[in-house]
Description:
Subcellular location (chain A): Cell membrane
Radius of gyration of chain A: 23 Å
Largest sheet of chain B: 6 strands, mixed
CATH superfamily of the largest domain in chain B: Periplasmic binding protein-like II
Keywords (chain A): Cell membrane, Membrane, Transmembrane, Transmembrane helix, Transport
Oligomer: heterodimer
Order of helices and strands of chain A: HEEHHHHHHHHHHH
Low-confidence stretches of chain B: 1-34
Strand order of the largest sheet of chain A: 1-2
Largest interface: A-B, 37 and 41 residues
Distance between the termini of chain A: 28 Å
CATH topology of the largest domain in chain B: D-Maltodextrin-Binding Protein, domain 2
Shape of chain B: globular
GO biological process, one term (chain A): transmembrane transport
Structural class of chain B: alpha/beta
Family (chain A): Belongs to the binding-protein-dependent transport system permease family.
Number of domains of chain A: 1
Strand content of chain B: 5-15%
Membrane topology (chain A): Multi-pass membrane protein
Amino acid sequence: MTTVRPSPAYALPAFAFFGIFAALPMVLVVYLSLTAWDGLGTPAFLGLENWSRLLTDAAARESLGRTAVFIVLTWAVQTPVALLMGAWSAGRQRNRAILSALFFIPLLLSTAAIALLWQVLLDPNFGLPQSVTALQSIGFLGDPEIALYTVVFVVSWQYIPFHALLYQGAARNIPVVLYDAALIDGASRWGRFWFVTLPQLRYTVVTSSILMMVGSLTTFDTVLILTNGGPGTATRIAPLYMYDTGFAGFQMGYASTIAVLLLVLGTALSLITMKVTRFRSMQSQQEGQ
Amino acid sequence: MRRRFGTRLRAVGAVLAAAALAACGTAGPGAGGGAQEPVVIWALQDDALNKIEQDSINRFGADRAKLETFGNDPYKQKLRVALGSPQAPDVFFNWGGGNLKEYVDAGKVADLTGLLEANPQLKSAFLPSVLDGAKIGGKHYGIPMRGMQPVVLFYNKKVFAEAGAQPPKTWDDLLGLVDTFKAKGVTPIALAGSQAWTELMWAEYVLDRIAGSEVFQNIRDNGPQGWKDPKVVEAMTVLKGLIDKGAFGDNFASVGYDIGGASTLLAQGRAAMHLMGSWEYTNQLSQSPDFVKAGDLGWVAFPSIAGGKGQAGTVVGNATNYYSLTEGSPQLEAAKEFVSTQLTTPEYVKALIDAGDVPAVAGIEEQLKSAPNAEYTTWVYELAKNAPVFQLSWDQDLPADQAEFMLTQLQEFFLGNLTPQAFADSLANRA
C-alpha cells in the first residue's frame, strides 16, 4: 500500500525562513569572524587572526569564566526550586492553584521590566536597603564580589516559574496508579516524591536543564540593564563582552568570533547533556506501555 | 507525481521571486527620485529638542525635509550601520571630534569648508572654539545645532551653608571639603559610578589641570602610546587620593545617572557636590523643581590644582552637537541649504534658549539675560566662550574601540582594582 504524502514543496516556506533567518546569518557570522570590520566600508579579510587573538585575550577568558560560573549557579539554584514548586503545584488543591498563580507572575513580566525593577529595588540610596537596615552594608550591584550573585538571583527569580510550569505539566502526567501502589507499599510522602515523582520527571529535568544552560549561556538583556557588566567588569559575561566589542567598540569581526564561539559552546553543551543523560534512549517508565 | 512536484516547486519559486523583487522595489527609493525626495535628518530623541527641530524643518518647508529620531545608544549603532549602506540619512546629528573623524576617514561626510567660506555671516555666527569641534584635518564637517554642554561642578547651597563651607576654588579646598562633609555624615561628592562616563569627567579635568591639554591631544592624535606620559600617572595619583579619601562615599559603584540616582542625592542634600554636564541644570529643573526654585542649586567651574600646568578656564564636555551631511547624498544641495539657513534663525536660537539650552551662537548675551534661568545660562555662556580650550569628552574624541576599553579600565581604577601606573600601562600597551 502506498501512502500519499504531501509534496515536499510544502516544506519550502519553512526551509526558506530557516535558511534566511537562521542558517544564513550563521554563515555570515563565521565569515565575519575571519575579518576586521568596523561597520563602515568593506570587511577586510584577516584569516585566523581574530581566533588567535581570542586565545590570548584575558578579558575574553575572564568573561567565559564568569559565564561558566553563571551557568552552574543558575542551574543549581533554579532546578531544585523549580522542581519542588512544580511538583507541589501539580496538586489539585484549591490553595495550591491560587498560590501557583501568584508564583508564576514573573513569567508575565518582560525581562527589561524585571531588570529595571530589581535595579531600583536594590539601589543602595533609594531602594530596599534604605528601609531594611540589615541590607545596608551589602553592595548588591556595587560590590564586584557580590554583583554576579545578584544577577544569578534575578535571572533565577525570572525563570523559576517557567521551569516550575514544565515540571507541573510533567508531574500531572504521572499516572495515579503509581502513587496508589506506593501508598499500599507504605511509602511516606517523602518516599513517594523520591521514588515516584522524581524518577518520572527525569526527562523533564533533562529538557529543563538544557533550556537553562543554553539560556544562561546567552543571557544578555538582564545583565545589560541591571549592571551593564559592572561594577568594572565583575558581571561582564561572554554575551555582554561580545556586545561591548561589537556595538560599543565597533569591532564587528572580533565580536563575530566571540559569537561563533558561543554558538559552538551552546551546541556542544546541549549535545553533551543529551549524551550524558542518554536522552536518545528515552523509554517509558511504565510497564506494559 | 514527479511532474506535479516540479510545477508546484516552480510556482513556489515564482512567488518567492516576486516577493524578493517587491522587496527590492521598496528597498531602494531615492536613487532616481530627483528633487522631490525630502532631506532625511537623523537626530536623538529628546522631548524638548525634537519640537524645536521640527519647527526649523517647518520653516524650511515641511515636505522638503523629514526628521527621524532615535534613542542615544541605539542611535550610534544605527548611524554606523546606515552610513555603511546606501540607506544613509542626508543630515545626521553627531558629537564632532574623533567620533566624527571615523566617518570622515571612511569618506562618508561632506566637506562644508566651502559652504562656510562662501557664507562668512554663517561662519561668524558661531563661537569659533565650538565650530572647531567638528573641524578635522583643517576642514569643517559639521554645523553646531544646539547648546553647549561644558562639565560643571554643581553643589547644594543649603548643605554648604549648614556646614559653613564655601565652594572650592582649588583642589586643596576640595580635599578640605571632603573632610568637612564626611564629619557631617553627608557624602561629599555624588558620583553615578555605575556609568563610567561620569567617572571620566573627573579624569578629564584632573589631567587637564595638571598637565594641560596637550597630553590628551597627543593620545588622540598619535595613538595609545601617549598614555605613557608620566603626567597621566601623576594625574591619576591625585585623583586616587580623592577617591581613597572617601570623597564619593562607599556605594558610588551602584549609583546610576540615567535612573536619577546621583542627581537626587544632590537635590535631597545627601550629597554636597556633583560634577556633571551643563544639562544637569535642566535635569534638576524637571526632576527636583523645588530644589532649583529655592535657589539651592549652586555651580562653579572645576577647581584649579596648585602647581599644575593646565590653563585655568579650560573646560571639558561636549562642545555642542552638530549636523553633518552625508557625502554622496542625492539631497546634498538641499541639505546644505537647510543647515546654512535654519540653524541661526532668531526663532531657532530663541527656542533653544527658552528650553534652557545655551546655543553656541555669538553675541546672544543680551538675549540670554532676558530669558528664564538667565543667571545660569549667561554663566555657562561666558564659561564656554572664554575657555582657551574646549576639550571634547574623551570617549567621544577617541575611536570607539579605544574609548570602550578606556571606560572599562577607568571603572576598574575607581574600584581600586588598578593602580594609576597599571591604568596608564594597560591603556598604552593594549594590543
